[in-house]
Amino acid sequence: MMGVDAHAAPGGSTGIDPEEAGVVVCWLSCTFLAGSAPACPLSESAARMVFPLSVTFPVAALAAVLEAACGYPPALLPAIGHPVMWIGALIDMLDTALNRPDFSEQKRRMMGILALILIIGVPLWVTEAVLDLGSRALPAPLMLGVQAVAACTLVAQKSLWEHVRAVGTGLRQGGLAGGRQAVAQIVGRDTAALDEAGIVRAALESLAENFSDGVVAPLFWTALFGLPGAVFYKAANTADSMIGHLTPRHAAFGWAAAKLDDVVNLPASRLAALCLILAAPAERRAAARAAVRRDAPRHRSPNAGWPEAAMAGALRLRLAGPRLYKGVRVDDAWMGNGTPDATVADLDRGLVLYRRACLILVGVLLVGALLFMIPA
């Protein structure tokens, strides 16, 4: 499943404050290290979800290959929905129950922290129960496959490719109207007045950012912690996309979700930029690297600027910059120093770059899986 543009619109998530990030990182550590706390009643249960890298890397590699080849079966959507939809339903319920307009700002922030614990804790509890049941009934190799199949539903390589390619198809077959309609499916900005360059830039920005958030990040957390890592990340990321905004309703309630998402996406955004730089044509790698170094820190998001700047430098374009959200102009910094006049041909080149970056990522996971599976 793909999210919309994660640029912080008026009311998007804020950057990382070191002290606040420390609190979030501490909580994050406790979530995964609960198994080492003898006084914790969940310690035995949490310990069963800690897998060695000889398991988690193969799970991540197999999940990446499966998702790239098959994607999420369309027939399952009307039948059972999608895991992100299940998490979203939980978030909606908690938002309604705990985010009361009559609460003070401090109480709403505390309720938001409680909601985030439940948003992450409930899916992890369900995951643990399924893995525990499966491990009692199935041999270890089959359970590795079960983890991979489940984890691949939380990765978006194929759907991201299809959604962005549809923008190019829309422009070619339906002109500006077709392009605007297609790009509106993957971005949150106003699209009604976008020209061809604006449509293509929006699609490329979404491609770069969702490569980080929807592909690299879930596979990174899977490689570290197996299926529980993927579930943890997707719950945190979905919480941020739904409540991590600076709107009057969610500024306090979604504070913890926004901060945690900033932290858990830090490594993935840097890895995504590296993959895009390596995937760039040899003569453009230095420019892509320079764009990241120069422009990524200028982005309002602590993470989005990294893959966007790499994409811009590799394609000789300028991405990001000013845009409209619900009629409000947002003056973001430009990523890259090329031309802002992007064309459909540039979108095609961006998709080629994306496929190469995905191949590099999958290659690293496969090599890591082989290395960790070989006995010392």
Characterization of this structure:
This protein is mainly α and 376 residues long. It has one domain. 68% of the residues lie in helices and 4% in strands. It has helices spanning 18-33, 43-47, 53-70, 76-80, 83-98, 105-137, 140-152, 157-183, 196-225, 227-243, 255-264, 266-279, 285-295, 305-315, 344-373; strands at residues 319-325, 328-335. Strands 1-2 form a two-stranded antiparallel ribbon. The protein is globular, with a radius of gyration of 20 Å. The chain starts with 17 loop residues before the first helix and ends with a helix. Mean pLDDT is 88; it is low at 6-16 and 21-43. The chain crosses the membrane at residues 110-126, 357-374. GO terms for molecular function: ABC-type vitamin B12 transporter activity; threonine-phosphate decarboxylase activity. It is found in: Cell membrane. Converts cobyric acid to cobinamide by the addition of aminopropanol on the F carboxylic group.
- The end-to-end distance, rounded to whole angstroms, is 38 Å
Molecular shape:
globular
Specify the number of helices: 15
SSE succession: HHHHHHHHHHHHHHEEH
Strand percent estimate:
under 5%
Q: Classify the helix fraction into a percent range.
A: 55-70%
Query: What is the domain tally?
Result: 1
Strand order within the widest beta sheet: 1-2
The main sheet comes to: 2 strands, antiparallel
Mean pLDDT over the residues: 88
The helix/strand class is mainly alpha
Count of DSSP strands: 2
Rg: 20 Å
What's the multimeric state?
single chain
Give the uncertain stretches in residue-range form.
6-16, 21-43
Pfam family, one: CobD_Cbib
Keywords: Cell membrane, Cobalamin biosynthesis, Membrane, Transmembrane, Transmembrane helix
InterPro entries: Cobalamin_biosynth_CobD/CbiB
Protein name: Cobalamin biosynthesis protein CobD
